[in-house]
């Protein structure tokens, strides 16, 4: 199949049904596919969120253009030039702002629009690249610079007959200079096409949209910048929110997921070790509790060793001996270092962003 032109597939890598649920141009990781994965999600299992489709970009001829009123020394970088700069390596979670969206409908009976993700639009990888700050410094970022806007090389995003241009989203200069990476490696390999080859942004703790893939240019401006991705999309509408929408979304929320299939069959009369992962854009996970009786009682899960990274996830497990047979529901709720925890209901917004409530994960206890 061709990878360019009108018949090109939206996603290049294979999407076997045991690993992914496909939603149009996007692919959701199945949580059971993480049971035998390590801390990092292999690139072959990492979710894909494409506004249009994966472009094939040739690293050898690719250039990153830095331009705009906030630079003293506008310039460009080739792939080899970036690789020659001092590198950083960091475990960072990328999560779509719409992850969990379908639970607004399934659990809260609210109507929302957008891709109906369960919890599989999130993943941690080990990213290696150049700090964005270093590249901005080489381009002579001035004290007057306020916003930094990377733009992707994928096709323009057209929705309902409106051409919104190529995917781009300004970052305030404070975030751009803090911990953002211009990444060229994912889990020790060059970035695969679907995840931004040759270079993408990795913006820790922020909604996935900020981590612009296939970056081709970056505008650095002494005036505030905007794009449809800050004025129209990725804001909260409806419910308690102002008519023009809340502020552009930045930091992601707090979530937990079991590494089990939806409606997993579990054998009666045995003890099962339930595994899962929790994460929060606000900081480290400090505790996770599991309930198997609809929230009447909660049991602490055992958090797996090592430092519980901010900007990534914490793995955990808990033992469970189901009583009886038939459909049952598993609940997990995490707390982070800011004291935030997962509520039983998530505040409504029309586009279904930042679902953070406890997810009711159905299982079937069966006689074997
Ligand atoms: N250029 C470009 N960058 C993009 C997107 C896109 O469609 N085009 N999607 C964004 C969104 S909404 C998310 S959630 C993440 C998903 O990253 P992944 O596909 O590597 O998992 O990429 C972001 N970067
Ligand atoms: Mo996203």
From TrEMBL:
Keywords: Metal-binding, Molybdenum, Oxidoreductase
Family matches, as CDD domains: SO_family_Moco_dimer
Signal peptide: none
Cofactor(s) this protein requires: Mo-molybdopterin
Residue stretches making up the Oxidoreductase molybdopterin-binding domain: 51-229
UniProt-listed InterPro entries: Ig_E-set, MoCF_OxRdtse_dimer, Mopterin_OxRdtase_euk, OxRdtase_Mopterin-bd_dom, OxRdtase_Mopterin-bd_sf
Record-annotated Moybdenum cofactor oxidoreductase dimerisation domain positions: 270-357
Record protein name field: Sulfite oxidase
């Amino acid at each position: 199949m061709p990878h360019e032109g009108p018949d090109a597939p939206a996603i290049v890598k294979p999407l076997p049904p045991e690993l992914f649920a496909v939603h149009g141009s996007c692919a959701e990781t199945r949580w059971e596919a993480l049971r035998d994965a390590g801390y990092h999600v292999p690139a072959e299992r990492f979710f894909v969120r494409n506004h249009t489709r994966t472009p094939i970009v040739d690293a050898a001829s690719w250039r990153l253009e830095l331009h705009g009123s906030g630079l003293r020394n506008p310039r460009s970088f080739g792939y080899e030039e970036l690789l020659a700069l001092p590198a950083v390596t960091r475990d960072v979670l990328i999560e779509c702002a719409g992850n969990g969206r379908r639970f607004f409908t399934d659990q809260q009976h609210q109507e929302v629009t957008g891709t109906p993700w369960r919890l599989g639009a999130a993943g941690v990888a080990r990213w290696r690249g150049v700090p964005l700050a270093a590249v901005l410094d080489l381009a002579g970022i001035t004290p007057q610079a306020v916003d930094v806007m990377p733009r992707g090389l994928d096709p323009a995003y057209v929705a309902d007959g409106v051409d919104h241009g190529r995917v781009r989203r300004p970052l305030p200069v404070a975030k751009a200079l803090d911990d953002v990476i211009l990444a060229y490696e994912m889990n020790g390999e060059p970035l695969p096409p679907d995840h931004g080859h040759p270079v993408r942004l990795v913006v820790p703790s922020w909604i996935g949209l900020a981590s612009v893939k296939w970056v081709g240019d970056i505008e650095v401006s002494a005036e505030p910048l905007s794009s449809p991705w800050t004025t129209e999309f990725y804001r909260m509408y409806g419910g308690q929110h102002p008519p023009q929408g809340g502020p552009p979304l930045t930091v992601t929320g707090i979530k937990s997921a079991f590494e089990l299939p939806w409606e997993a069959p579990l054998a009666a009369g045995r003890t099962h070790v339930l595994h899962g992962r929790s994460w929060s854009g606000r900081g480290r996970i400090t505790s996770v509790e599991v309930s198997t009786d609809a929230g009447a009682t909660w049991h602490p899960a055992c958090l797996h060793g090592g430092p519980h990274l901010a900007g990534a996830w914490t793995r955990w497990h808990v033992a469970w001996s189901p009583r009886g047979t038939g459909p049952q529901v598993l609940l997990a709720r995490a707390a982070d270092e800011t004291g935030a925890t997962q509520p039983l209901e998530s505040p409504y917004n029309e586009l279904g962003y930042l679902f953070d409530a406890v997810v009711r994960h159905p299982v079937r206890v069966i006689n074997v």
